[in-house]
Amino acid sequence: MEKAxxxxxxxxxxxxAGIAQACLVAGLPVVVIDIDEERVARGRAAIAAGLARSVSxxxxxxxxxxxxxxxxxxxxxxxxxRSCDFIIEAxxxxxxxxxxxxxxxxxxxxAGCIIATNTSSISVGRLAEVVTRPSAFVGTHFFNPVAVxxxxxxxxxxxxxxxxxxAAVSLAKRLGKTPVVVKDAPGFVVNRLLCPxxxxxxxxxxxxxxxxHDIDEAMRLGCxxxxxxxxxxxxxxxxxxxxxxxxxxxxxxxxxxxxxPLLEEMVAAGHLGRKSGRGFFTYDAP
Length: 286
Known about the structure:
Helices cover 47% and strands 13% of the residues. Helix 1 (14-25) links the parallel strand 1 and strand 2 (30-33). The protein is of the alpha/beta class.
């Protein structure tokens, strides 16, 4: 496939809605799937709100926003994906859940369709084992918020075909993103470097080395980071950071990747960051 013409996105949450919005802005028709009408409606509302922000910033004309929303279709039935030639699984970072979703996608995907996973740390090779054509399976790791972040890690699994990688690179560029092709390894490049640093920041905070504000100020001013590590945890979602660290701990079998106990405690308490209204900092609304 030289160029994707229609996109399917499974998962209407933060990442799925962001990916769908980027595809709509690029002029592509998009089908968004989730488990019930309420979640589909929430995803559509998030996409509409994102497009409205673009209009308010004069980055998009109102007519283009309306046209983009006309290209959006929401559904709960995976059969709606049969018309798509590039389908992206964008569920939460849980391997068992992703496997179940990918099996359902594989059951309806038409011949020649590329199936991608938006995993941030799980082995693309393992996920590829559940689809019938692993050569047409690839990782496309978008970053949150998708509308702002320009990078897409295109993950070349052990059985991913070169043509599949090229198609994923082409789609990323069409969305105005910069693709970087990476080997299939835990955390790929960005999270392999980033998440242990975030985990260490949580440990430093839990040990009382400095306040959350001062830890973030130190990294912003001392390392020129645009956002401090604890605020970044809140933005990413503490549950996502924890999931990545658990993948590292399992796959590397190295105690240095053990998640910070406080991170586990906060996730168990439902303090997930911005999306719950409370993490290392508090927020007016999720």
